[in-house]
Every structure is written in C-alpha cells, then in structure tokens.
Design a protein that fits this description.
The complex is a heterotrimer of chains A (487), B (493) and C (135). Chain A is mainly α. Chain A has 19 helices and 2 strands. Chain A has one domain. Classes of the chains: A mainly alpha (487), B mainly alpha (493), C mainly alpha (135).
C-alpha cells in the first residue's frame, strides 16, 4: 500500500470496526474479535506507514474543502506518526485488557462500550494525521463527543455529573478559546496548515501572538493545564479500560499533542522563545506539575491519585513545549510516548485490583503484592518509570526536558521537575512498599482472591515490558521527534 | 409555451392554486397528496431556477407582460433562488412528515382547511421571495401571515388561540409599518419597483420622509423577523402550533423575513445608506447580540422542549442579524449562510419533536426520560440537530459560526466574537439538558413507546444528513452565499 | 409656521395611528384591540390616499382638456390594503369567537389567569396520549 492509501485507511479501519462491533453485538466473542483484529490491522498499517515514509516528500490527502481555502486534509508528520504508533499499539492491548475487565466486572452495555472505543480511536487517528488545525479541531471535538458515552458508561447520577464536568470543561475551552484562536489565526495569516517554522511572519505584533498563544494553550482543555484540569479526575468514574487508554493515552495525549503541534508548527520553536508570555506559561505549567503532585499525595482513591499524577505529567509536556528550545520540544515529544506506556500500566494495575480484589483505595492495599505479584510487579515498573529513574522509559524524556530547561535557564522549570520527582516517589513508593512488605489487613479483605484474570495480566505485562524495552531501544521515538524539530 | 420561461411565477402559482383545490377535494388523504405533489413541483421549479440563475444571471419576469417599473416584476437573482430553494425544500419535507402528524393533531373535518391554509402560507412566503415589487411584497406578506395565524390557532392546546391572536396583533402592526414605509418611499420616488427605487432613492435619501420610511420598514420587518425585543410572539406561537406548522415556520418564515431585510437594506436603500449613514449597523449588532444571549439564557430554563427550541430560534435569528450588523462581506455572507443552515437544523429538530409528540403526546422535558433507548433514531436526530445548533464541526452550524466569528474579527470586534462563542456554550447547556434526560432518565413504565413511523423518520434523517453534508461539502451553500453577497453589496442587484 | 395647517392630512394620519396603537396596547378586551388595530390600519389608508391628491389635480378619469390628474395608483394600492385589513379583522374576530368558546371570556387578563392555571396543571405528568378536549 502506498502512503496515500494508508492515510485513507488508517482513520477508516476503526470506523469500519465500529460498524462491525455494532453488527456483532449479540455475540460477544465475535464482537471482541472484531475489535482486536481491527486493532492489529491498524497497528500494522501505522507501522507500514512508518517504514515507507520519506520525510523529504510526504503526501497530503485532501478529503474535502469545507471552507474556501481550508481543507480537511491528512498528512504524515513525525510527531503525528509517533502518536499514531503509540495509540494504535495500545488499542489492541487495551481491548485485550477490557475483555478481561468488562467480563469480570459483569458490565452492561458492552457493545456500546467497544463501539464508542473504536470511534474514539478513529478520532485519535484523525488528530494524529491532521495536516492543518481545522482538521485537528474537527477530530478533537469528535473525540470529546465519542468519549462522553464512555465516561458516563455507568449511567447513574455520579456518572451524569461527571459527564457534565467533562463535557462542560472540554467543550467550553475548545469552543470558547481554541476556536477563537483558530479563526483569529486564519484571519491574520490566511492559513492553518502545519508548517515547519510556524505560520506567523514578523508583521504580527508580539502582543497579538501572546494572546493567541494563551488562547491556544488554555483552549486545549484536554491537556489538563490548571485551572481546566478538573475533568480528568471527574472522568475516573468511567470503567478502568477507558481511564487507561483514553485518559492516560488517547484523550490526554491528544491534548498535549495539540499544544506541541501548535507550538512547533503554528508558532515555531523560535517564535515561542521570543515571546515573553511563554515564560509565564512555563510557570503555570510548573505550578500545575507541583500542585497536582501535591494533591495526588492526599488522594486515597487509587484512580484519583493516578489521575492527578497524569495531570502533573501532562504539564511536563506543556512545559517542554513552552520552553522554546529544541531539547524541550524533543523531551515533550518523547514524554508523550514514555508517559503513555508507564501510565497505562499503572491504570491497568488499578483496574486489576478493582476487579479481582474489589478494592479501590490505597489504604486497603496492604499485602496485596503477595496475592497479585505480577500485577504489583508491573505497577512497580510503571511507578519507577513515572518517577523517571533508569532503566525505564520515563528517564529519557525527563533527561531531555531537564536539558532544555537548563539551556534556557528556566530555573522554575528545573525546580518543578525536581520537586515533582520527589513527590512522585512520595506517592508511589508507599504503595509498592505497602503492597509487598506490609501485612494484609483483615478489615479490608473482601475474601480470598488470586492473581488477576489472564487477559488483564497479559495486557499488563506487555505494557510493563514496553516501558522497560523503550529505555533500551529508544531509536524509533527518538528519530521521529528529532525529525520533527529539524524538519 | 415554454415552462422554463414561466418558472418564476409557477413557483408561486402552483401552491396558490392548490389552496382552493384543497377546499374542493375535501377528503383528507387526497388533500394531503395534492399538497405534497404541489410542494414537490414547486421544489423542482426552485431547483431549475437556481440552475438557471447561476448559469445566466438574474431572471426578470414581467407579470402579464407589463414592462416594469409600471408593471409588476418578478426578479429572481441568486439570493432569491437560494431562499426559494430552502422554502420549497422545507415545505416538501414537512409535508411528508405531515401525513401521520396532521390527522393526529387536527380534527378530521378541518384537515382540508388546514392544508388550504398551509398552501396559502407557503405561496405567500414564496411570493415574498420571488417578487421584485415592493407593494407586492406587502400583499404576499399578508397572505402568508393571515394563513399562518389560522394555522397556529389550530393547535391542540387552547393556548394556541391566544398565541395566534397575539401574533395577529403584532404581525399586523408590523405589516402596517411596512406599508407606511413603502408609502413614504413611493411618495418620494413615485415608483414601487425595487430596482427603480434603488436607482431613485440616493438623490432623495437625505429627506426626513425617506429616513422615516426606512425606520418604519426596518421595525416592521424586525417584528416579522422576531428581532429582539420584537420577538415576544414567537415562543408561544411555536410552542402551541401543530407540530407540522412549527417545523415549517421555524425553518422558513423568519428566514424569508431575513431575506426581506437584506433586500430592503442592501438593494432598495443600498449598503452605504443603511449601514453607513443610518445607525442600523450598530443597532442590529447590539440587538442581535442581546437577542442571542437573552434568548439562549431563557431557553436554558424552559421545561417544554418546543418552547426551548423556539427561544433557541430567537437566538439563532440574533446571529443572522448580528452578521448583517457587522456590515462587512463576511458578515453578510455569514447571515445568508446561516439562513440555509438554520433551516436545516431547526427543520430537523422540530420534525423530531413532532415525532416525539406523535408517539408520547407531550413535549415536556420530564416526559423525555429514557427516550434515548425507546426512540433511538428520533433522539439521535435531535442530538445531531443539537450539535449543529451548538456549532460543533463537522456540521453545517459550525460553518455559519466560523463565518460569523471571522466577520467580527475582521472588524476588530473581538468582544463580540467572544459573546458569540458564549452563545454557543449556552446552547451546549440547553441541548445537553435534553440529552441527559433522554439517555440517563428512566422511561415511564405505563407509557407505550415506539419508534417514530418512517414517514417522520425519513424527512428527519434527510435533514440530519444534509446538516452533516453541508458541514463538509459547503460548495453549494457557501458558493451561493458569497455570490449573493457580492451581488447585493457590489453590483446592486 | 403656515405649513402646519397645510399638512393637515398628515396630522389626521398621525392622530388616527397613535389613537389606534394606544387602543391596541392599553385595552385588555380582545375585541377592542381589534378595533384599535383597524383604526391603526385606517390611518395608513388615509396616508396613502391623501398623498395621491395632486394640487389642482382632477379626478383620474381621462377627459378632454385636462392636463393634471390626481394619482390613481395609491387608490389601487389602498383597495388592496383595505381588503387585507378586512381579512385581518375577519380572522381576528374568528379567533376571538374561538377564544370565547374555549375560555368563556374575551378579557386578556382573565385569559392569562386561566393560562397560568393551565401551565401549573401541565406540570403534572401526562398520563394519556394527547388528552386535551378543547375545540
């Protein structure tokens, strides 16, 4: 298949899978097979795209022209490819996990779940492959809408309220701020295409550029920059596969991906460096990093702690993008991949514990490591990656981010990274310690149980191994991100 | 006799003649069928007109062969053809929906008269669009208005009668203001033909008479338009009218009024006078904005969904007026574009609401509980229409919003841009109220639920698909709108 | 100053228009509102007709030797407008009769009161398919 064909099929495969899932809804095994097969095909396609792409000569697929001069178009770009690789790899893994989880938990409406999942993946592919800001925005909104039924899956009042926060924040920021920024950019420059070096020329005043940058960054609610982060802890009401794939990988990464793309291809790394407001945004990101980590420390609910940890980690990426230097952008791009693998492992573990031991609070986890050694072992790997210690993935991206911060002499950034590393240790290590070294508390026991179901375990082990392997073989992500900065 | 020569008048005559035919036919099924065929013929004529006008330029048709400006001229240019397309398309779709809806809501012995009135209303609206003579506009305006008063009063709830009466009073005052305006213009120029007026007005435009005439015309059209604060008749009228009438009116009547406003201020008076000399641009900008925000806010608190979307219509009209008030090419294009897109959205929404009313007999919010599961296709249609209303891509509503915000940014009116987007967010609130009720609520155990019949789902889904189609392939809509704008503001006609 | 008596027809128009408008707004009785409306429309008729009169103009019938005629066009326009006015009044009165049948009164405030009762009654759940029995 050539590049154009792949570009057409990649967003299409998950959509076709949706139809397949709905059609086979009555036979769960076939339905799940459709999901997994589609996921494997998708990953194979994205990987093929990665192998045949030649960065000197990338093709653009134009689908339609909704507005004169603005088209709905896909093309291949290094960061987008990285995002697509991560997301398409983790989709079948998460589907495997979900099979174990949803069945063990006897969840209702599973067809709707898998169908909404694949639509969401289609939207993520659309975001990853978008050639201009309009296309990205369209799929960004579709992603918000398609994840709403997933977040409110439980259908009870709590889910409904969480859904309101989710939709309200995400749609409010995207319609109120991001759309305005987009239309304004179009008005100023006549283009929204992602271009190396940015689309703004020197005639546009720094004041306007500063306002635009603020609109873009805060308008991307999915990046969970404070104060627009509340939707992420609210979304934890969703089933854990949703939290794992979407709110550790797809939705949140779409957010920071957007910010990174905007900063590299709409503004340009040099323009960001010249703007004073980016320093302010670095500080806001730094604040989010530290504050969110601090809040995580106080959360006893397992998923809530992980959610705030995600908020914090996402701002690493935002901060890197706002540093205005190549190393920062590289670190941000890498962290998109590194954090994805680490966090998804952590969420997988939380879900495994929920479904096997019926425990959702950290204080109940004493001694669970003995009953669920593989699960908690994977958790330990994921946690160390989050903390950023070698030999796990998180180390590499943190290295680049720190390097970028040093080069631009942003001491606040450096301070934030250091403090949050310590805080990460403070809220992850006790969990591991309690799991393996503390005695089980009979009060919190819900009966005898063993390891998690097999599909869940397999998924866990795949992502945990990936976290470890990427440290030793960072070639592909590193090459892609460097291409982004140099291309 | 070549049919295509007479298309401009056929588009009006076919529905007009069907009206007495309906009285004669009497039997409900026959009458419905006659109305359906007539509206589809009219739609076909409108399509042919669009093709003709885009190929050859504006068509001028002399009624009775009398040469204008002494005779009455029917002038179809791009804007007129575009609006004709919308009105006849909506009539055709709504009549399909009417097949099951009307017998449920109107007494059997009245159905023939109902369709008679409907055909008159339709003919009146089409006549307003097609004509090129100012007084003819008044005549057709009153034809459609009177028929509309009768239609609204046929609603099931007795409050429809008072709603219709209020509309009658306000509508007649509005039409009379328009008449005064036309009289003032006639007094100063001696002609009633729109193009002739456009040619003769500039030399007398500095007189009090002309300015007073302008004011009367604008206020009169504003009443018909439901421009804030002259919108008070609309919520009740839409809420209590029969479902089919609401669907039709929401999608067409106010659009034709916007068309009339554009025709008046841009063609008859010219953009320099209307939006430059007279402070209409600021007035429309302000009133449009206030309309958007206040109506959206009121909509949030409504318990009856028909009323909720009626207030939403007032807000959407505010957007169109805002576009005109911004007074640049993009703004007017945005207004014309939204004419089309809003007809699609509201047509779909009110048809869906009519289907709900058909099945469960009510449109109150609490009765929507659980409807998402029991009437999935209908509710999905409402969600899709709602998304277009909010302005989420890839729907048609997004395109209109884009142009509107772009136009405000072009005039450096970024606070207005922010307020427009605030209006969108208010729309999210009231649309989501409905979505939550339908998908999270528990359906009533004692009620019989069933999906809507095909005759209702078909027009609904045609409109929904159109919403998405015209959100992605905007060639037709944006193309016609931009052409119309340049004709109205540059070429003058 | 001498122009004011010369503009006498316009004064009549303004007076009728305002009187009619005032009646529409201030009177609560629906029939009276219609009367006010008719008054309002009549003022416009006079506006048009009086504008058609040309100074020293003869009646608009072709006669040998007469060169200045009054303008017949406004008369024609007003004939149309009068018909429209009649139709409006007819529809309005028909509505008033129906309102009387449904509400038992034609006073606006009493109708509004009854509507408020309707509104609060409608807050109770509907138990059957379209059960109102009006008309």
């Amino acid at each position: 298949m050539n590049e154009l064909q792949l570009l057409t099929w990649i967003p299409l495969v998950p959509l076709l899978a949706t139809i397949g899932i709905v059609a086979t809804g009555k036979s769960p095994n076939i339905r799940e097979a459709v999901s997994i097969t589609a996921g494997l095909i998708l990953f194979w396609m994205v990987a093929s795209l990665a192998s045949i792409v030649s960065w000197d000569n990338t093709a653009t697929l134009v689908l339609a022209e909704p507005l004169p001069g603005l088209s709905l178009a896909f093309n291949l770009e290094p960061l987008g490819l990285l995002f697509a690789l991560v997301a398409s790899f983790l989709w079948p893994v998460t589907t495997l996990y979900a099979i174990g989880y949803m069945r063990a938990h006897h969840e209702i409406n599973q067809t709707r779940f898998y169908a909404a999942f694949s639509v969401s993946i289609a939207a993520v592919m659309g975001i990853a492959l978008s050639a201009n800001m309009l296309t990205l925005f369209i799929f960004y909104e579709i992603l918000t809408l398609s994840t709403y039924p997933l977040v409110t899956h439980a259908g009870n009042d709590k889910a409904r309220r969480a859904g309101r926060v989710y939709l309200g924040l995400l749609m409010g920021t995207s319609v109120g701020l991001l759309l305005l920024a987009m239309i304004w950019t179009w008005h100023l420059t006549g283009t929204l295409t992602f271009t190396n070096g940015g689309v703004f020329d020197h005639t546009i005043s720094p004041v306007i550029l500063s306002v635009l940058l603020i609109l873009y960054v805060f308008g991307t609610g999915k990046a969970a920059l404070m104060p627009f982060h509340r939707w992420l802890p609210a979304a934890m009401v969703a089933p854990t596969p949703v939290s794992a794939l979407l709110h550790a990988v797809a939705v949140v990464k779409a957010g920071v991906f957007t910010i990174l793309k905007v900063s590299v291809y709409i503004f340009g790394v040099d323009t960001i460096a010249e703007l004073a407001v980016s320093d302010m945004l670095v500080m806001i990101a730094a604040l989010t990093i530290v504050l969110a980590s601090a809040i995580a420390l106080y959360k006893d609910n397992f998923k809530a702690r992980l959610a705030y940890s995600t908020v914090s980690q996402l701002s690493y990426i935002t901060m890197g993008a706002m540093l205005g230097i190549a190393a920062g952008a590289i670190g941000s791009g890498l962290h998109i991949a590194m954090h994805a693998f680490g966090k998804i492992t952590l969420f997988f573990c939380a879900g495994a514990v929920l479904v096997t031991a019926h425990k959702s609070n950290i204080s109940e986890l004493n001694g669970i490591g003995r009953r669920m050694p593989w699960t908690m072992g994977a958790f330990a790997i994921g946690a160390v990656s989050m903390i950023g210690a070698p030999p796990f993935a998180g180390f590499i991206s943190k290295w680049y981010l720190l390097s970028g911060a040093f080069q631009t002499e942003q001491w606040i950034a450096i301070g934030a990274i250091v403090i949050s590393t310590l805080l990460n240790a403070a809220y992850f290590m006790p969990i591991i310690y309690a799991a393996f070294f503390k005695e089980e508390d009979p009060q919190h026991s819900h009966g005898e149980h063993g390891e998690a179901p097999l599909p869940i375990l397999l998924a866990l082990l795949v992502t945990a191994s990936a976290t470890w392997l990427i440290f030793f073989f960072p070639g592909v992500p590193l090459a892609l991100v460097e291409q982004m900065v140099n291309g | 006799m070549n049919v295509t020569e007479h298309l401009p008048i056929l588009v009006v005559i076919i529905p007009l003649m069907t009206a007495p035919l309906c009285v004669l036919l009497g039997q409900p099924r026959l009458v419905w069928f006659a109305a359906l065929v007539s509206s589809w013929l009219s739609f076909a004529a409108a399509i042919l007109l669009v093709m003709q006008v885009t190929a050859e330029g504006p068509i001028s048709y002399w009624l009775g062969g009398w040469e204008p400006p002494w005779g009455i001229e029917y002038r179809i240019d791009i804007l007129a053809a575009y609006v004709l397309l919308i009105v006849s398309a909506m009539a055709s779709l709504v009549l399909v929906f009417a097949r099951k809806s009307v017998p449920r809501e109107i007494d059997e012995h009245r159905i023939a008269y109902f369709y008679t009135a409907f055909m008159l209303a339709f003919a009146g609206l089409v006549g307003i669009v097609a004509t090129g003579d100012a007084f003819n506009v008044f005549v057709f305006l009153e034809i459609s208005s009177l028929a509309t008063y009768a239609l609204i009063s046929m609603g099931k709830d007795r409050r429809a009668l008072n709603a219709s009466f209020t509309y009658l009073i306000m509508g007649t005052i509005g039409a009379t203001f328009i008449l005064i305006g036309i009289g003032s213009l006639y007094m100063m120029t001696g002609t009633l033909n729109m193009l002739d007026l456009a040619a003769r007005l500039p030399e007398v435009s500095d007189t009090r008479t002309v300015r007073a005439g302008f004011a009367f015309l604008t206020v009169g059209i504003g009443l018909k338009l439901a421009l804030f604060p002259l919108h008070l008749w609309l919520p009740n009228a839409y809420a209590y009218a029969p479902s089919m009438v609401t669907a039709f009116l929401a999608a067409t009547a106010t659009k034709v009024a916007v068309y009339l406003l554009l025709r008046t201020i841009l063609v008859i008076f010219g953009i320099d006078f209307s939006l430059g000399l007279m402070p209409l641009d600021n007035l429309l900008l302000m009133l449009g904005l206030i309309g958007v925000l206040s109506a959206s806010l009121v909509a949030v608190y409504q318990r009856d969904i028909k009323r909720l979307f009626a207030y939403s219509s007032v807000a959407q009209i505010g957007y169109m007026v805002l576009g005109i008030g911004v007074a640049n090419t993009t703004g007017i294009t945005a207004a014309i574009l939204h004419l089309f897109n809003h007809a699609l959205m509201k047509g779909a929404l009110f048809i869906a609401l009519g289907a709900v009313a058909y099945r469960i007999g009510s449109t109150r919010l609490e009765d929507f509980a659980g409807l998402g599961r029991k009437m999935p296709w209908t509710m999905a249609g409402i969600v899709a229409g709602g998304l277009s209303l909010i302005g989420i891509p890839p729907t048609a509503g997004f395109i209109s919003k884009w142009y509107l915000v772009l136009s405000t940014l072009e005039q450096d009116l970024w606070p207005v841009a922010l307020l427009v987007l605030l209006g969108s967010m208010l729309a999210v609130i009231y649309v989501w109220k409905l979505v939550e009720a339908a998908y999270f609520g528990k359906p009533d155990e004692y009620r019989h639920y069933q999906e809507a019949p095909i005759s209702m789902l078909a027009p609904l889904w045609i409109l929904v698909i159109a919403n998405f189609y015209f959100g992605i392939h905007t060639g037709l809509t944006v193309g016609l709108a931009t052409q119309a704008t340049s004709a109205l503001t540059g070429g003058g006609g | 100053m001498m122009e004011i008596p010369g503009l006498f027809n316009y004064w009549v128009v303004v007076f009728l228009m305002m009187a009619g408008f005032y009646v529409v707004i201030s009177r609560g009785n629906l029939v009276k509102k219609l009367v006010g409306l008719a008054l309002f429309q009549t003022s416009v008729f006079i506006f048009y007709i009086s504008m058609g009169k040309i100074s020293d103009g003869a009646a608009p019938i072709l006669v040998e030797g007469v060169t200045t005629y009054s303008n017949p066009l406004p008369h024609v326009l007003i004939l149309t407008a009068i018909v429209v006015g009649v139709a409006t009044t007819a529809v309005g009165l028909a509505l008033v009769i129906r309102i009387y049948e449904a509400y038992g009164t034609v006073e606006e405030d009493e109708i509004n009161e009854q509507d408020l009762i309707d509104d609060s009654a409608a807050d109770e759940p509907v138990s059957s398919l379209g059960g109102e029995k009006d008309k």
